[in-house]
Design brief:
Layout (H helix, E strand, L loop, with lengths): L4 E2 L5 H10 L5 H12 L13 H10 E2 L7 E4 L5 E6 L5 E8 L4 E4 L3 E3 L8 H5 L1 E4 L2 H9 L9 E4 L9 H12 L11 E5 L3 H10 L3 E5 L5 H7 L8 H8 L10 E7 L7 H10 L6 E6 L13 H13 L3 E4 L21
Parallel strand pairs: 1-2, 6-9, 9-10, 10-11, 11-12, 12-13, 13-14
Antiparallel strand pairs: 3-4, 4-5, 5-6, 7-8
Helix pairs in contact: 1-2, 5-6
Length: 340
């Protein structure tokens, strides 16, 4: 049917507007949300506490907007990488990572990415298009492990703050009582450091924030992260220091370690100075090689030295476990360029 829009991915306020325009009772909007996000029905016909007339009206204007993965790859460590088609005939990937105490889903917000980081396969792919709120949440809704999930990280394909309106809508649905009713403490959103959008996110969401740092030196970060030309990491840190991070909301920094590039003692000294006064943690990440650059991962011994030094200087620091490397699902490896 022509002019249909996806129903899945609408907020309560958007559905209330629809009800008002078409003369439906306002409480219908909350009923629709319950069917979409709590009962997770697959069709409008299943919304049985709506009148038949209301369901027919919905079907005139909406389809469900739910799509299922078209492929899955399973890693030797249990990680699963799902491939989805988008409404614009594109492809995106999401990664499910189970462990003994949590089930985490890494979701994408764009097909490709316009940030162009030299160490990232998604960045090398370039930007194709933004995902809608429904397409972002569909990655959670439509996988077999959906009901198991305990945590979500916005760390897949794309820069979340380059698609901020749709990301904020998805977070509203995830955390609202009328939506999935998740605690924002179960959600972590990563950014390269788009300062105006970052400040808006801090004001409008209570979810955790992760910053892709990768070098404390402005001149060095500029060599492999083009965003540094517009938003230097020193300016990002200055902005973050305006806020109180001592509560339940977590601020973390992602630091991919490149052998002989950003893993020297001078980097430790500068990191300590840069982060002084911020209540935060640093996650050290193994670099996963991609074609067309000469970066190599730092040794495990060097990563341990980094962790111990930062910990001894009052900065909580962990080494993130690498997951799904054998299926190209680890940090920095997501790309659908060769599949499209």
């Amino acid at each position: 049917m022509k002019n249909q829009q996806p129903l899945f991915g609408n907020t309560l306020s958007e559905l209330q507007i629809f009800c008002k325009v078409y003369g439906l009772p306002s409480f219908n909007a909350k009923q629709i949300c319950e069917w979409l996000y709590k009962k997770q029905v697959s069709s409008i016909d299943e919304m049985t506490n709506l009148s038949l007339k209301t369901r027919e009206l919905l079907k005139q204007h909406f389809d469900m907007g739910i799509s299922y993965p078209i492929d899955v790859q399973i890693s030797s460590d249990g990680t699963r990488k799902y491939l989805f088609e988008t409404s614009k005939n594109g492809l995106i990937e999401a990664v499910y990572m189970p462990s003994s105490d949590r089930h985490t889903l890494c979701i994408s917000v764009q097909m490709g990415c316009r940030m162009g980081c030299d160490f990232c396969a998604t960045g090398k792919q370039g930007f194709q298009h933004n995902l809608t709120c429904g397409e972002i949440l569909n990655q959670l809704r439509s996988i077999p492990e959906s009901e198991l999930m305990t945590n979500i990280v916005y760390m897949g394909m794309g820069e979340p703050f380059d698609n901020l309106d749709e990301v904020l809508k998805s977070l509203e649905i995830l955390t609202s009582d009328w939506g999935y009713a998740w605690s924002p403490r179960r959600i972590n959103v990563s950014t390269i450091g788009l300062i105006p959008e970052m400040e808006r996110f801090i004001a409008e969401s209570e979810c955790h924030l992760a910053i892709s740092l990768h070098s404390p030196f402005d001149y060095e970060r500029q060599k492999f992260m083009p965003i540094q030309n517009k938003y230097p990491i020193s300016s990002v840190i200055k902005s973050l220091k305006k806020y109180d991070w001592s509560g339940q909301r977590r601020l973390s920094f992602e630091y991919i370690m490149f052998d002989g590039i950003n893993d020297k003692h001078t980097h430790l000294d500068e990191l300590t100075k840069l982060l002084k006064g911020l209540f935060c943690r640093v996650n050290l990440i193994k670099y996963h090689s991609i074609p067309s650059n000469d970066f190599q991962p730092s040794t495990e011994e060097r990563m341990i030295e980094f962790r111990d030094y930062l910990s001894e200087h009052g900065i909580i620091c962990t080494i993130r476990q690498s997951r799904g490397e054998d299926i190209m699902a680890a940090c920095g490896l997501l790309s659908t360029f060769s599949k499209s």
